[in-house]
Specification:
single chain; 605 residues; alpha+beta; 3 domains; 20 strands; 31% helix; disordered N terminus; acyltransferase; EC 2.3.2.8
């Protein structure tokens, strides 16, 4: 059995993970599919992929498929047709032992450590136990005398509000409201003394804290991308951020409003009941107390668990909360069945460790990596552990802890996991981050995990991202392995890789990312087969003469419970059916490669 200290194996009928009693890959070829694109939002069926349904799949075959540009969502496998699809998607990976964390990634680790040891947002850790509840802190805030507040309490609130504004900026980036190509400045919140309250603001007498970060963000947007900054003046930015700050402000007895581009925080203690009711829902003192206690006072205990991919009601509730709050899904869209098909079901055949150096202690297969703080589930990384890599599929996390950048933190933990397990399994060296789409701003964060490589879509060779980027700056689809022949063209391009990669001050939730990365189970339901290639290119196999097709004679055909090579049953099909089947087999071979086509079972009934 796998190491019970690290894996909680839960046999469940809701999971389709298959144990190693049936170690063979059986797939059904869906063929070419067209669907709407979740990245460019084209509005029409411009996303073109080749699809397979997998009844079962060995981890070795899936590793080989990854290295040919495939990806899975539940039991569905898909590969973009790179020359035709609107947003060419390149498989991206990094070698864990070569990983060099950036300054921002180091800051994420340090922020988590400060949170765990109880010092986050506290200037003076020796004084942190003086705050016992939010209500007691609120009593220290005098509307007419903010200077009378104990300096430690002011510092705590200033730091807390600054962190929350930074988290709001990250949320705006995730939701596409701000460009993720820009390195935004960090927020700074200042307390407002009585003699400085001359802003043209409502309830100026109740003004306690303010921030001018909106002016800096608007300037950054205009400076870097004029088109991105269009319409986003300081007033617009302040309004946008204020909408995300209402709950955090209320948790410490404040209200928030945008005023002439400033983000202003007001004491709610002296406002009229009508004003308070209009600006916020009722918040109990106990709720405020719990918020401050959670954020400031306690030493936190972080536990990371690795478990087989099975349904867990607590995970589902966290996923539901994440999808609704972060990705704005409607509650009726986030169903238990869709969750299972997307993130629980897996065709991968589990391989347990026998104590040798070919399999890590946890085994190979599909897993959920749980992150618990003080026993409460706060994040779940959905991953596949394969012979050469940890493949990151999706992450969902508690929106209330956005300030901890759990997307980045979990990625760092997964990279570190690969490093630690290389001693148990030397072949396990890489961290696969899914697809990278150069034309999609939401994908750019993946290149921040360096040094990374992209997979050439034609020859399936790995090419340094630094080289690939300069090619992709010119056009979205490139045969990356041709970079040597394009040396003269590269010399004409500006070498700004370092400058553009250090744009990481935002949350990478979806190394899986970003809500749209993984195909949902419904993404192909309304699409239609498109066997005829209008361009007449090399993929137009339905029109291709038989003598130009790939050799399909050794493909293993699954038919009525029997597994036979096609050459042994070819004669059983009438000429018309034989010609059609061979054209489909030709497409299949081109999509998965000769080796895999002769190793996996092609099921036809």
């Amino acid at each position: 059995m796998a190491d019970k200290r690290k894996i909680k194996s839960e046999a469940s009928s809701s999971s389709s993970t298959i144990d190693d009693c049936k170690a063979e890959s059986v797939v059904v070829d869906v063929g070419r599919r067209r669907s709407s694109c979740g990245y460019c939002k084209s509005g029409s069926n411009t996303s073109i992929t080749h699809g397979l349904w997998a009844h079962s799949l060995t981890v070795y075959d899936y590793q080989a498929l990854l290295d040919r540009g495939w990806r899975r969502s539940g039991c569905f496998l898909y590969k973009p047709e790179m020359e035709r699809t609107c947003c060419p998607s390149y498989t991206i990976r990094l070698k864990a032992s070569d990983f060099i964390p950036s300054k921002e990634q180091v800051r994420v680790s340090k922020r988590m450590q400060r949170f765990l040891d109880g010092s986050l947002n506290n200037k003076n850790s020796d004084e942190q136990n003086k705050i016992s509840s939010a209500s007691s802190v609120q009593k220290d805030i005098k509307v007419d005398n903010p200077n009378g507040v104990q300096s430690n309490n002011i510092d705590q609130k200033v730091d807390y509000l600054s962190e929350q504004i930074n988290s709001a900026v990250l949320t705006c980036i995730e939701q596409g409201e701000f460009s993720n190509e820009i390195q935004f400045p960090k927020a700074s919140v200042k307390s407002v003394a009585p003699n400085k309250k001359k802003l043209q603001a409502e309830e100026a007498q109740d003004l306690v804290y303010t921030s001018n970060i909106s002016f800096q963000i608007a300037a950054a947007l205009r400076r870097v991308h004029k088109n991105v900054g269009e319409g986003k003046d300081p007033k617009f930015v302040a309004e946008m951020l204020s909408n995300h700050l209402k709950s955090p402000a209320l948790s410490i007895g404040l209200s928030v409003k945008a005023c002439n581009g400033h983000i202003n925080f007001y004491s709610t203690e002296t406002q009229t009941k009508a004003d308070v009711t209009a600006s916020r829902p009722a918040v109990s003192k106990a709720s405020c107390s719990n918020n401050l206690e959670k954020l400031h006072l306690k030493r936190q205990n972080l536990e990371i668990r690795l478990k087989r991919s099975t349904f867990d009601p607590e995970e589902y509730e966290l996923y539901r909360k994440y999808q609704i709050k972060v990705h704005n899904d409607t509650p009726d869209h986030v169903t238990e069945s869709s969750y299972k098909r997307f993130l629980i079901d897996s065709p991968l055949i589990f391989v347990q460790s026998n104590g040798d150096a070919s399999v890590p202690p946890c085994g190979f297969g599909s897993f959920h990596q749980q992150y618990l703080i003080n026993g409460k589930l706060v994040a779940v990384g959905v991953i596949d552990i394969l012979p050469k890599c940890l493949s990151s599929k999706y992450l969902f996390w508690d929106p209330d802890l956005a300030f901890l950048s759990l997307g980045k933190y979990s990625a760092l933990q997964e990279i570190n996991w690969v490093k630690e397990n290389q001693s148990h399994c030397p072949s396990l060296q890489y961290y696969y981050l899914g697809y990278y789409i150069h034309s999609c701003n939401k994908m750019r964060y993946k290149a921040a995990y360096r040094p990374s490589e992209l997979l050439c879509p034609l020859r399936f060779e790995w090419v340094s991202f630094d080289i690939a980027k300069r090619l992709l700056d010119k056009k979205p689809y490139v045969v990356l392995s041709d970079f040597a022949t394009l040396e003269n063209e590269l010399a004409l391009l500006p070498n700004t890789i370092e400058d553009q990669i250090e744009q990481e001050d935002y949350e990478s939730n979806d190394i899986r990312v970003d809500g749209d990365e993984e195909m949902s189970e419904g993404a192909f339901e309304d699409s239609e087969d498109d066997d005829d290639d209008e361009s007449g290119g090399p993929e137009a196999t339905s029109l291709m003469p038989a003598d130009l097709r790939k050799d399909v004679s050794n493909i293993i055909i699954g038919l009525r419970g029997m597994h036979l090579k096609y050459k042994d049953i070819r004669h059983a099909f009438p000429p018309t059916e034989r010609n059609y089947l061979e054209s489909q087999l030709d497409k299949y071979v081109r999509a998965v490669g000769t080796d895999l086509s002769e190793r996996m079972t092609y099921s036809i009934g």
